[in-house]
Amino acid sequence: MKRLPRPILTASQVYDACISGVKDVTILARYKAASKAFEAASLVYEAHASAHSLYQFPACAWGKGEQVILDSLTKADLGELYESYMVNKRYPGRSYYDQLLASAPLGKCPYCGFGQATTVDHFLAKARYPAFSVMPNNLVPACSDCNKGKGSVIVLKDTEASHPYFEDARIEKDAWLFATIAESKPVTATYAFVAPLDWPSDLSLRVKSYFGEFDLADRFAIEAASEMVSVSDYLTALPTQRLRTAHLNLIAQMERGQRTNGWKAALYEALSRSDWYCASGYIHS
Fold first, then answer.
1. 167 CB-side CA count, 13 A
2. 77 is in which domain, residue-wise?
3. pLDDT by residue (tens digit) across 233-260?
4. Beta partners for 177?
């Protein structure tokens, strides 16, 4: 996962921009009356996210748009605020949606690292935690696969995943993603999360939850299969196993240096350590 700087936007900025698109004076009055409650909720969210305790927020029941969430605003009201007044390009709130999208490094999804960030993900799902539907600290640029695959999960103490805006820097500095190579045709790579021995248990749980929640083992394996086909032709041109091993090891070092827990780093490290692969396993025909 790629950690991201927290949005420089304030919750009030985004909320005010969104409600400025509401034309019905009666509905607008209710949104305005709830502005203080929304601002207070944003401060509580930031405190819990910083402490990795977002699981303490109670989740809403599925459906039931009439549930009152903030002040007099219902679940349906808060969902409408996002869907109609933040996502819709006709309204002022859209500029903040686009700003959040643009924060994705090189346009790539911070969750998986290879998908294009074309959507905004609610870290706490708006179907379960509607109070945070337009809160910038809860909105993460993401690819559609990560966004849709994540679903509307209820966050529990043992399942809270790593948050790109609030996670410990060790998630990027310490190696925890590793791959193994199956001696088969076609050759396949299997990915796993292995917690560093000096990590606290809560950090290990969050990263493990993140790895599972986004189905990264299977998705990385698919990317790896394609990569191994591509690199095969180059390896075939190298005359000795020693040269093939050295080439793969060099790529592994470069990838670990650029993105410690990228799928390519783990793949090339595993390939360089496989005598079988470097001897003949790389031949895909």
1. 26
2. 11-150
3. 999 999 999 999 999 999 999 999 999 9
4. 193
